[in-house]
Amino acid sequence: MSAANPRRRRGPILGSVLLLASLATWFVATTGDTPVVAPTGSVTVRPTAAPPAAAPPVIAEPLLTPPTPPSLPEAVAAAPDAFVGAWRAADGQRLHVTATGSDRYGVTVGGEQYDGVLRDGRVHFPRGIDGEWLQATAAGDCLLLGSGTRFCR
């Protein structure tokens, strides 16, 4: 007589039970649910815990804040047509502003052209890192560029 394989001695029913138990263990480990064996021999799954609540949506905050005009004591918010026209600084530098659309302006400073947008009664246009602002004076006869360069008619 030869030595019998110990696996063969268990029989097919015991092998099936071991396979079913290992599958149930894997199922519980991966899903967290507990399998329940019905009296008829079928396996059903019953959750053991409520599903986790959905996380609240993440609201991204802007990395940069919108630019704000420099605070100049004599600057005021102006009507959209107050910026249009030709302007000259005391040092001879020229500024020319044209309306190109609703709240949009073409700004020419010293031969360089920019596209400007009206914001809160001031014109902002991209120049340098933060851009530049055109602000009107209270008298309405001059514009202030940036932190105070004065252009008058």
Rounded mean pLDDT score: 80
Strand order of the largest sheet: 4-5-6-7-8-9-10-11
Q: Got a strand count?
A: 11
CATH class of the largest domain: Mainly Beta
Estimate nothing, just give the exact number of structural domains: 2
Give short descriptive properties of this protein.
153 residues; alpha+beta; Lipocalin; 2 domains; eight-stranded antiparallel beta barrel; two-stranded antiparallel sheet; 1 helix; 17% helix; rod-shaped
Explain this structure to me?
The chain has one helix at residues 6-31, and strands at residues 34-37, 43-46, 75-76, 85-89, 94-101, 104-109, 112-119, 122-125, 132-137, 142-145, 149-152. It is of the alpha+beta class. The chain has 2 domains: 11-46, no CATH class; 75-152, Beta Barrel (Lipocalin). An 8-stranded antiparallel β-barrel has the order 4-5-6-7-8-9-10-11. The N and C termini lie far apart (119 Å). 14% of the residues are buried. The mean pLDDT is 80.
Give a quick precis of the structure:
With 153 residues, the protein is α+β, with helices and mostly antiparallel strands.
Per-chain topology:
Layout: H1 6-31, E1 34-37, E2 43-46, E3 75-76, E4 85-89, E5 94-101, E6 104-109, E7 112-119, E8 122-125, E9 132-137, E10 142-145, E11 149-152
Antiparallel strand pairs: 1-2, 3-9, 4-5, 4-11, 5-6, 6-7, 7-8, 8-9, 9-10, 10-11
